[in-house]
Write a structure and sequence with these properties.
The structure holds 2 protein chains of 2 kinds.
Chain A lengths: L1 H10 L3 H6 L40 H14 L3 E5 L2 H9 L7 E5 L4 H11 L5 E5 L4 H7 L4 E7 L11 H10 L3 E5 L4 H4 L9 E5 L13 E5 L2 H14 L5 H11 L2 H20 L4 E5 L9 H7 L6 E6 L2 H10 L4 E2 L9 E3 L11 H7 L5 E5 L5 H12 L7
Parallel strand pairs in A: 2-3, 2-4, 4-5, 5-6, 10-11
Antiparallel strand pairs in A: 1-7, 6-7, 8-9, 9-12, 11-12
Chain B lengths: L2 H4 L43 H14 L3 E5 L2 H9 L7 E5 L4 H11 L5 E5 L4 H7 L4 E7 L11 H11 L2 E5 L4 H4 L9 E5 L13 E5 L2 H14 L5 H12 L1 H20 L6 E3 L9 H7 L6 E5 L3 H10 L4 E2 L9 E3 L11 H7 L5 E5 L5 H13 L2
Parallel strand pairs in B: 2-3, 2-4, 4-5, 5-6, 10-11
Antiparallel strand pairs in B: 1-7, 6-7, 8-9, 9-12, 11-12
Helix pairs in contact in B: 2-9, 3-4, 10-14, 12-14
């Protein structure tokens, strides 16, 4: 019976279907929802024999369902679940050695920047930050010692779009590994491995889990050899995702398609609304015709995602909006069913040097909105009342 | 207040809002902020979670430290502590350390430029002799895994102080109920919370407690930056486990003492390792620094085949890795807990194929003895 259920899952072709089917009938009971194996260790049938599971740090059946699920969605040879997105990124960075050089998207998530700048730099791993939406800048940053390009696309928070096929091609020619942080898109909208990247990394806290109720990270690798190296690190360093959280991510992924459809639509309508507001000086949303990355993203992704960043006339107006929103929560993080607004310069990107932040455009006038699945009328009403009276804050 | 009482009443186990005697499980990954520029006590689940905070406060109080940190596994706790060091730093580590610790030091951190020398910590002179110009820390397990060797923690912390080194102790086998290394001058205490603290073989977790603010700040930075944190459900389960720590440890020790005494009288058993036995090397030191022998008994059969026969013949203990749960677990260190160790290193430290490790659970010890007796007779 389980085999039959498995065969059915393989027959699914569309990502939304594959996501819904994760773990369905995956064990002997035929349970539609996979069980939570809250166990540390597994009894061996006999000395030198194993059921395939020995110790939950090394492998746990619930975590396995999630790991195989994300590998299936992303078309990879292996998937790995971690206790946070940063733990996932750390595990990948531990593949490298002192003296190795990385080329990294300049306006990437502040936590990744902190990790590279405050931990891995100390271990002799060097990083160049470039605008990865400009392939020329990427090529100019490559050195003899470059081992990997870490690209976020669209970027956080400025939603710049990198040409993943072009970057991967250039990297492959030089024996460099391409790692794509696909948190903003998920495999529902973009599959970096199919576009030529070697490794995909996620903060599963965001769209994959989707309910602002789990902290988790995922990695998918394209080839078996890398999968073995990553598995060794996952087990040795032990930054694994617990069974309850693994199950919550699986549960979240089942609604990935419907959530992202609704979130993307809300984001588009919010972006269009924002573009017409007087105190809004710039809107960053890759679905707008004015967005420079729209063409590239349309080629490599199935949609524009649900993140909208916007710049207002001054810091006072930005703070006024944050202090006035009622339905939308002022909070870090993104990707959940509830709409959130963030002040990147003081929250997610607070660890980046202020001058550097200003140069990139992550200034004190920039707000980031993660569109949820609420009714758009209520969201626009909330934004409208939050904007009302902005003139008094000039 | 006695430690057995403090386990239940550190003051962190009650929910401040409702008075609930069990802390709520906060699954939230993020927290709503009221005003721009004024952030509340919590921002993002990786950086801080009220359920995790309660657990971290409890372990900090029990170990007598300044701050505590919960990680997704014991190895994540160890790796996070090792990440506070820098390339060129050198560590002196007890030679019969847990195989997973040995593996991460010799196959990952060495590549990152952190060197480790493994020596016999029962001999303070050997520890001193291994210290170099670039040594930054001494890392001990006492009693050690699986041979239950004893390190004098007072002497260790004095040695470290003289030379300006940090001391790190893996206190997994004892828990703060039986041994509190920080009271003896140790700087960092590490636990696999999977074992006695969790106590039910149902979760994977790691804990770290730091004795001073500066060390705590370094570890806290890594916990947030690396993000190998413990999830809220597992934090809650671990707190639930800690509530019965005293009752469980008392019974684990009683059972282990009975089993160890019985084993030491059997002619088929070449040697028994248990800090409660009168002739156990280092017993004086252990009695001085710990409140009891713990629940782990290792023993040596006449050879590898005999050890494997006993392992296969036992019915009651589960043949499995791990330890410290309510169920007895029997394991074969040479290809389970210490498989990650180089064979020559295993040979040198006595982790050989005739050795069996038993984590004595809460079953009636008479049943365990009867099961062992039947298994030994089959050889």
């Amino acid at each position: 019976m389980p085999e039959e259920a498995g065969t059915k899952n393989v027959a699914a072709k569309k990502i939304a279907t594959k996501a819904v089917q994760i773990g369905v009938g995956s064990d002997y009971t035929g349970a539609i929802s996979p069980p939570i194996y809250q166990t540390a260790t597994f009894r061996h049938p006999a000395l030198g024999e194993s059921t395939g599971y020995d110790y939950s740090r090394t492998g746990n059946p619930t975590r396995k369902v999630l790991e195989e699920g994300i590998a299936l969605l992303d078309d990879g040879a292996g998937g790995f679940a971690y206790s946070s997105g940063m733990a996932a990124v750390t595990n990948l960075l531990l593949l490298f050695r002192p003296g190795d050089h990385l080329v990294v998207t300049e306006d990437l998530y502040g936590g990744t920047y902190r990790l590279l700048d405050a931990v891995f730099r100390r271990f002799g791993i060097k990083t160049s930050y470039v605008d990865t939406s400009d392939i020329y800048q990427v090529s100019q940053a490559l050195r003899e010692t470059t081992v990997a390009i870490l690209v976020e696309s669209p970027t956080n928070p400025l939603l710049k779009v990198a040409d993943i096929p072009a970057i991967s091609r250039m990297a492959r020619e030089r024996g460099i590994v391409t790692i794509a942080d696909n948190t903003f898109m998920t495999p529902y909208l973009q599959r970096p491995l199919d576009l030529g990247a070697d490794i995909v990394v996620y903060s599963a806290t965001k769209y994959l889990s989707g309910h602002n109720d789990t902290v988790a990270g995922l990695v998918v690798v394209k080839d078996e050899e890398t999968a073995e190296r990553v598995a060794f690190l996952q087990n040795s360093v032990g930054a694994v995702l617990g069974p309850q959280d693994s199950w919550l991510v699986i549960r979240g992924m089942k609604t990935l398609g419907v959530r992202l459809d609704r979130q993307s639509e809300n984001a588009r309508l919010i972006a269009e609304w924002l573009a017409d507001r007087e105190p809004v000086t710039r809107v960053f949303y890759p679905g707008l015709d004015s967005h420079p990355g729209k063409k590239v993203l349309r080629k490599q992704a199935k949609g524009f995602g649900a993140m909208v960043s916007f710049e207002v006339i001054n810091r006072g107006v930005a703070e006024k909006i944050l202090n006035s929103i009622k339905l939308v929560s002022f909070a870090e993080s993104l990707g959940g069913v509830e709409t959130l607004m963030t002040f990147p310069a003081f929250q997610t990107h607070a660890d980046i040097d202020p001058a550097e932040r200003e140069r990139m455009g992550i200034n004190d006038r920039l707000l980031r909105l993660s569109a949820g699945i609420e009714d758009i009328d209520d969201l626009l009403d909330d934004l409208r009342q939050a904007f009302d009276g902005w003139e008094a804050h000039l | 207040m006695k430690i057995g009482t403090r386990i239940l009443h550190t003051g962190n186990e009650i929910d401040r809002n409702t008075g609930a005697l069990s802390v709520p499980v906060y699954h939230a990954s993020t927290y709503r902020q009221e005003k721009a520029g004024e952030f509340g006590p919590y921002s993002y689940g990786r950086s801080g979670n009220p359920t995790r905070d309660a657990l971290e406060s409890i372990i900090t109080e029990l170990e007598g430290g300044i701050d505590g940190f919960a990680f997704s596994s014991g190895m994540a706790a160890l790796s996070s502590v090792f990440l506070i060091f820098s390339p060129g730093d050198h560590l002196v580590v007890t030679e019969d350390v847990y195989g997973g610790t040995y593996r991460v030091l010799t196959q990952l951190f060495n590549r990152l430029g952190i060197e480790a020398t493994f020596v016999d910590f029962t001999d303070p002179a050997k520890v001193k002799a291994a210290v170099r110009e670039n040594t930054k820390a001494l890392f001990a397990e006492t009693p050690s895994n699986p041979l239950l060797r004893i390190t004098d923690l007072q002497v260790l912390s004095e040695t470290a102080r003289e030379k300006g080194l940090l001391t790190i102790v893996d206190n997994t086998f004892m828990t703060p109920y039986l041994q509190r290394p920080i009271e003896m001058g140790i700087d960092i205490v590490i636990h696999s919370g999977t074992k006695y603290l969790g106590g039910h073989s149902d979760l994977i977790a790691g804990l770290v407690v730091a004795a001073d603010k500066e060390t705590a700040a370094r570890i806290g930075f890594i916990q947030n930056a690396f993000g190998a944190i413990l999830g809220p459900q597992d934090c809650w389960l671990l707190m639930r486990g800690i509530k019965t720590l005293k009752a469980r440890m008392d019974m684990h020790q009683q059972g282990a003492a009975k089993v160890a005494e019985w084993l030491s009288r059997q002619p088929e058993i070449r040697q028994v390792y248990f800090p409660g036995l009168p002739d156990h090397p280092g017993k004086d030191i252990h009695d001085r620094q710990a409140g009891g022998p713990g629940g782990i008994v290792s023993f040596r059969m006449k050879d590898g085949p005999a050890a494997r026969q006993v392992l296969e013949a036992l019915c009651l203990p589960a043949l499995a890795v791990s330890l410290g749960g309510v169920e007895s677990i029997i394991s074969y260190p040479v290809n389970m807990s210490h498989a990650g160790m180089h064979p020559a290193h295993r040979e040198r430290t006595g982790v050989t194929d005739d050795l069996v490790r038993l984590s004595v659970g809460l079953e009636d010890p008479d049943d365990l003895v009867a099961d062992l007796e039947a298994a030994i007779k089959k050889i």
